[in-house]
Amino acid sequence: MRPPRFSARSEIAALKPYNSGLTLDDVAARAGGRRIAKLASNENPHGPNEATKKAMADAISRPFLYPDPSGRALVDEIAAQTGAEKSRIVLGDGSEDLLNVLARASLNAGDEVVTLFPSFPLHEDYAIMMGAEVTRIGLTSEFSIDTPALLKAAARPVRLILIANPMNPAGLWLTPKDLDALLDAQHPDSLLCLDEAYVEYAAGPDFASAATRLESHDKPLLILRTFSKAYGLAALRIGYGISNSDDVIRAMNLVRTPFNVNAVAQAAALAAMTRTDAMDQAVAHTLKERARMAETLTGMGLRVLPSKGNFLFVDCGQPSIEVADRLIDHGVVVKPWKQEGYETFIRVSVGLTWENDQFLEALSRVL
Ligand SMILES: *Cc1c(COP(=O)(O)O)cnc(C)c1O
């Protein structure tokens, strides 16, 4: 019997499957017994500390209970550390969940969403899912953020301005001055959402989190954060949003599923946030290694964009799908970028020292 046919909503037809990368099992068969350097998903291979692992073990011992639907203990800690009001914090099953919730809570068909390009694909996908129109602000010919174009777009009454800061995959970021200019330029009818998935890696005088402006900003602002990157908890799926607007949080709470964050994830995130020793060490190692990798790659004659994330965006000068494919035979997984104009770029995560060495060695062979 032929399986029955069904047509999804018309907007869904425009979506492509998310490129979630290869798993270790996918790669093992081709890596010929080598250790595999998994550098395609910006995970933190250092992982969480012992206190976090213990909190997870404790939480999993009561699997029959529903989790706290509002994650009070964790929300209290997020409020204490970010300065956000407790009532203006929303938890998500990863920040990807919150991007989906945000799209469903805010976008009508035909609404305009402004993003930076190259972009985190889900920033566009969920807008398209809702039938919204995406306006991409591309990089300049020098591969920097086109701030004048961004400010001009932000000044229009678009529905949503959704950008990652630092950007994924480019690694670029808004300086504090550019952030303030964007907050100034924002049209009061627009919601500005800054996805700060990499904020822990971005500290320094040339970067400011929008959280430092939350209190004083008089237009709708939403900041998204995740425990998947620097906190090393990608498997658990947990992130959060903080806002200066009760309306934004109310809408997102209505749209999200009531128990969207499981109890193990809540407990782990709280423990990881309470004692940040492992995270601090992982970030320090990553920043050192990022500089070393950038220097080696530049020495190989490749263009490497400046990055404040735990990854580098590298122009290989040849189709990156082929480069990434050849790297697999050397036990190295990176993400070939597929968006228009960036088909020769790979995004490589900064991993453990041996992983980075294996990547650098393999890339020089492959090129
Ligand atoms: C990795 C990443 C996320 C996803 O985070 P999860 O919390 O794992 O869903 C969100 N936004 C950006 C820009 C990312 O790079």
From TrEMBL:
Cross-referenced Pfam families: Aminotran_1_2
EC identifiers of the protein: 2.6.1.9
Amino-acid biosynthesis as UniProt keyword: yes
MF terms (GO), sorted A to Z: histidinol-phosphate transaminase activity; pyridoxal phosphate binding
Domain of life: Bacteria
GO biological process: L-histidine biosynthetic process
Keyword line: Amino-acid biosynthesis, Aminotransferase, Histidine biosynthesis, Pyridoxal phosphate, Transferase
Cofactor(s) required, per the database record: pyridoxal 5'-phosphate
Residues spanning the signal sequence: none
N6-(pyridoxal phosphate)lysine sites (modified residues): K229
Catalytic activity: L-histidinol phosphate + 2-oxoglutarate = 3-(imidazol-4-yl)-2-oxopropyl phosphate + L-glutamate
Residue span, Aminotransferase class I/classII large domain: 37-361
Pathway the protein takes part in: Amino-acid biosynthesis; L-histidine biosynthesis; L-histidine from 5-phospho-alpha-D-ribose 1-diphosphate: step 7/9
Family recorded in the similarity comment: Belongs to the class-II pyridoxal-phosphate-dependent aminotransferase family. Histidinol-phosphate aminotransferase subfamily.
Subunit structure: Homodimer.
PANTHER family: HISTIDINOL-PHOSPHATE AMINOTRANSFERASE, HISTIDINOL-PHOSPHATE AMINOTRANSFERASE 2
Protein name: Histidinol-phosphate aminotransferase
UniProt organism field: Pseudohoeflea suaedae
Lineage summary: Bacteria, Pseudomonadati, Pseudomonadota, Alphaproteobacteria, Hyphomicrobiales
